Amino acid sequence: MSDLADLVDSNTNETCEELTLSNGIGTGLLQNDSVWCRFKFLKKLDLNNSELSTLPSGIEALSPTLEILFLSENNFEAFPECLGNLNRLRMLSLRGNRLTELSSSNLPKKSLVWLILTNNQISRIDPNVGELKELRKLMLSHNKLSSIPSELEGCKNLELVRLANNEITTELPKEFVTLPKLAWISLAGNPIAHCPQTKEKEILKSSVSFTESDVLGKGASGIVYAGKYSGKDVAVKIFKQQSMGSDGNPEDEAAINALIDHPLAVSALGFFLCDENEKHEGMVMPLLDGAKTIGRVPSFDTVTRDAGPTNDAIDLDRESVLSIVWNVATALEHVHRKAGVSNGDVYLHNILMCKVGTARISDWGASFIYDGNHDFADVFERIEVLAFGRLVQDLFDWYLNSSLPDLTEPADFLGRTRGVPLESGPFYDLVQSILQPDQHKRPSFKEIKSTLSQLPEFERARHAADRVACS
Ligand SMILES: Nc1ncnc2c1ncn2[C@@H]1O[C@H](COP(=O)(O)OP(=O)(O)OP(=O)(O)O)[C@@H](O)[C@H]1O
C-alpha cells in the first residue's frame, strides 16, 4: 500500500461515516493532507495500534463531522495539538500510550464527553482540567497519579470516573467526590483503598474443571465457563492476564469477591492462581441456572447509561421490575453496611437474572473497599445511591414507560421524550430524594430499604427475596 488515497479509493467510500485504519494500515500515510478533506461525513476514525506519536494537522479537515477518535495503543507522549480543533469530538481514546499529564490545553473543551486514558504514565492532572465542562466519563485507571486536583470540580457533568490502580495516597478533594452527577467511581489498587487478603478463599487449580467450549458469557475482564468444583456445577471465570482493564485488577476483583456474602449478590466460592506467577488466574462462582444480563452496556450515544434491554430481557412485567429494585437495594445495603464495599459499576448490564426470575447483582471488577468510619464513608455510599437511582430510572423507562423525577438532569440525557410521569406518593418521594444533586440529601441504602419495605407494592418482591435467602 503506497498511498492513503489509494487505500481510501479501493476500500471506502468518501461518504462513509466510519473508517478503520488500525494496526498500522494508516502508518506513514497520514501525512497526505489532501485526503482528509475528502471525507465530508466521517464521524468515527480508528487509528489504534499504529505506532503513532503525532497526528498531522490535515486531520483538522474532519472537524465539521468527527465525533469519535480512537488512538489507543500508540506512542503519544502528549495530546497532539490538532485535537483541540476537532470541535465536534465527543469521544477520544488514548488508552495504552505514553502520556504523562492530563491537561485540557489541546482537547476540544466544548464537545468532549468521554475521555479514555487508561494505562498511560499520567502522574499529573493540570488544574485546567476543570475547563472540560461537558465531560461525563473519564477513564484514568492504570496510571501514576498520586493525587487528584480539586479543580476537577469544574467538570460539573462528570458521572463516571475510573481511578483504579494508581498511586493515590492523599485524600480525594471533597469538591470532586461531591460532584452533583457523580454516580460511578473505582478506586481499588490505590494506597487509599483497602485491599484484604484472599488467602482463605484460595483453592487448588486442579480441583476445578471446565471445557473451553462451554462458555456462559464474556466480560471485559475475562470469560465465564460452565465447570465443576467439589462435585458441584459451577461458573468459572478466567481473568484476562495483564489486560489493564478500565475498571481495575483481577487481584482487587478477587479480594472483594471474597468479602461478599449475600444471597442476592453473585460472588466467588474460591480463586485459583497461575502456576507461573502466583497471580489470580480464575474464580469459581455458584452457577446461576440460565443467567442473563438485563441491560446492554453503554453505547457511544448513551455514554454513561446502559444502551437498553438485552434481547433476553425485552419484556419484564411490573412485578419483575419491582423485584429487581428490591433485590439490588437489599444487596447494596448489605455490602455497604457490612463490608464497606462500593460496587462501582451498578448497572443493569451487571444484574444477572436466573431462569426462575431472581435478580442478583454481579461483577465486582470496579469495586473498592472504604473505611466505614472515615469521613468519606457517607460520600462513597451516596455516590452509589445515585447509580442505583439511574438503574431504577432505566427500569421504569424501559419496561413501565414511566419517567421518574430527576433533579440532577431536568432535561433527559438523550433529549428523548420520556414516558408518563410517575404518580406522586411515597415511592415518588423516595426516588426524588435519590435522584438529586445534593449528596447530603440522598438517603442511605438502609433508609432506601426501610422505605421500600413499607410500600405494599414491594411486598411480593420482599417475600420472594426472603425465600431465596432461606433456600
Ligand atoms: N455465576 C454465573 N452463573 C452463570 N452465568 C454467569 C455467572 N457469572 C457470569 N455469568 C455469565 O457470564 C457473563 C460475563 O460475566 P462477567 O462477570 O465476566 O461479565 P461482566 O459483568 O461484563 O464483567 P466485566 O467487568 O469483566 O466485563 C455474564 O453476563 C453472564 O452471562
From TrEMBL:
Alphabetized InterPro entries for the sequence: Kinase-like_dom_sf, Leu-rich_rpt, Leu-rich_rpt_typical-subtyp, LRR_dom_sf, Plant_LRR-RLKs, Prot_kinase_dom, Protein_kinase_ATP_BS
Keywords assigned by UniProt, alphabetized: ATP-binding, Leucine-rich repeat, Nucleotide-binding, Repeat
All residue ranges annotated as the Protein kinase domain in the record: 210-458
Gene3D superfamilies found in the cross-reference section: Phosphorylase Kinase, domain 1, Ribonuclease Inhibitor, Transferase(Phosphotransferase) domain 1
Domain of life the protein comes from: Eukaryota
A GO term for molecular function: ATP binding
Protein name: Protein kinase domain-containing protein
Organism this protein belongs to: Cyclotella cryptica
